[in-house]
TrEMBL record:
Keywords, alphabetical: Transferase
The protein's name in its UniProt record: Colanic acid biosynthesis glycosyltransferase WcaA
Gene Ontology MF: a single term: transferase activity
Superkingdom: Bacteria
Record organism: Salmonella enterica subsp. enterica serovar Poona
């Protein structure tokens, strides 16, 4: 685990966020590559799952099962309900 926060999430603040800007994937991917050695296994899964979501890219079953975690399954279920 990292002693200091590597990112701060601001939910519903109404300003431009990395996940809604035109350069969202590039910025998030740069963040992941820069800090991935500091993440634990669950955090890596969460970050990679987020990268798939940002790109709106379909996952193979194998990838989905690899990235599946409690946090990601909740996000996946919420996304399916929202469709």
């Amino acid at each position: 685990k990292v002693e200091e926060a590597t990112q701060i999430l601001h939910i519903n603040h109404g300003e431009t966020q990395i996940t809604s800007s035109p350069k969202k994937f590039s910025g998030y991917f740069h963040f992941y590559r820069k800090h991935k050695d500091k993440f634990d296994r669950a955090s890596k899964k969460y970050q990679l799952f987020t990268l798939y979501q940002i790109r709106n890219k379909r996952m193979t079953w194998r990838t989905l099962l690899t990235l599946l975690s409690v946090r990601n399954s909740k996000r996946l279920a919420a996304g399916l309900r929202g469709r």
